Amino acid sequence: MTGPDGAPEDAVVKGGSSIEPWLREILRCPACRSELVDAVGPEGGPELLCTGAECGRAYRIEDGIPVLLVDEARAGAPGPA
Hints:
Blueprint: H1 21-26, E1 36-40, E2 46-50, E3 58-62, E4 65-66
Antiparallel strand pairs: 1-2, 2-3, 3-4
């Protein structure tokens, strides 16, 4: 079966992103190398949120592709250490 965006149903995660689970596990924040977790941005779109204690950047996901550019990240509240 497929999800609403045509991705395999098992690839659809919280926030509507369609990043494969195996890829989600290896992605890290390009600024501080901390783990990224699924989140929903202020406009309701999917994003990856850095869990770094002093970072907290949020990276948007466009068409299932995370935009991991520090210059385009949304500044957010720092995550738990």
